Amino acid sequence: RIVVATDVLSEGQNLQDCAIIVNFDLPWAIIRLIQRAGRVDRIGQKSDIILCYSFMPAEGVERIINLRSRVSQRLKENAEVVGADETFFEDEDPEQIVRDLFTEKAGILDGDDDAEVDLASFAYQIWKNAIDKDPSLEKVIPALPDVVYSTRPFSPKPNQPEGALVYLRTAEGSDALAWVDKQGRSVTESQFAILKAAECGPDMPSLERHRDHHEMVAKGVKLIVETEKSVGGQLGRPSGARFRTYERLKAYAEKIKGELFDRPELRRAIDDIYKYPLLSGATDTLNRQLKSGIDDPTLAELVMALRADMRLCRVTEDITEGEPQVICSLGLRAHS
């Protein structure tokens, strides 16, 4: 079976039934290639190898559209933006650079997992796979009480010790994960790494909990709350959609102050983002758009549209009076 699509499928879709990607057109933004491959490299992918092929234009076409030199020029412009002391692919053949970019030679597109993983899609796919195998879970899981916990067998490593994973809903309504060791110290802040550590099949046996399980959970909660306050303040982590959207739009609003595009709707939307948590749908939308390189005017229009449709923030006047809520926790315990 073959799926033929434009870039409309390069974001937010799960295409794990495919294992071969053919890039017939070459996008200007290299990130698009990563996004296309990311749609296939999802949970549920059964192939050990995912093959990516890219078409470079034939020589006759190349003479007409001059693609390679235009992409090379883009790379030079990027270098100028970064600064005079920074260069991309120094002392390399420009034409070969372009080929390597589009064929992903030598891991040229490799990067930090968290930077490319769509966590909302990742978590949703875990859930979808589970209920596809056992539809009864669709009723069982939501009926579980808060603060439910279990413990799974775990093979510790120097940088991945025994401990506990905590899933918390903060007082501001944001979801957060923490992984703490037996001393209550943070193991990693990577939400993707924590999700991966929690991954287990339905046949995995549960173990007796750590004697200090609840103490570890309490330290995990404290860690999340303190991190939210000290690192991102009311807006959450700097890497989050809320923080990044607010900072960008605040700067953009100052830039266009007094001009034609300076609209009160934008300033009200910025105020809402500062005061209230984003709705989950808005978070997903903004994360995707920020990752794809949306510009400031388009981001402003998007946020104003979401606010007009009441799909931007969870607006409630007593939001600060809430308490952090532990949804669940999972102990990680070595088992011989």
Q: What structural class do you assign from the helix and strand content?
A: alpha/beta
Number of distinct beta strands:
7
Multimerization state: single chain
Low-confidence stretches: 79-92, 103-117
Q: Helix and strand succession?
A: EHEHHHHHHEEEEHHHHHHE
Mean pLDDT: 77
Distance between the termini: 44 Å
The rough form would be described as globular
- Number of helical stretches of at least 4 residues: 13
Count the domains: 3
Taken as a percent bin, the fraction of beta residues is 5-15%
Spatial ordering of strands, largest sheet: 3-7-4-5-6
The proportion of residues forming helix, as a percent range, comes to: 40-55%
Q: How many strands, which pairing sense, and closed or not: the largest β-sheet?
A: 5 strands, mixed
Rg over CA atoms, rounded to whole Å, is 23 Å
What does this structure look like?
Helix content is 44%, strand content 12%. It starts with 19 loop residues before the first strand and ends with a strand. Helix 10 packs antiparallel against helix 11 and helix 10 crosses helix 13 (296-308). It has three domains: 7-116, no CATH class; 147-235 and 324-334, no CATH class; 241-308, no CATH class. Strands 3-7-4-5-6 form a five-stranded mixed sheet. By secondary structure, the protein is an alpha/beta fold. The model is unreliable at 79-92 and 103-117 (pLDDT under 50).
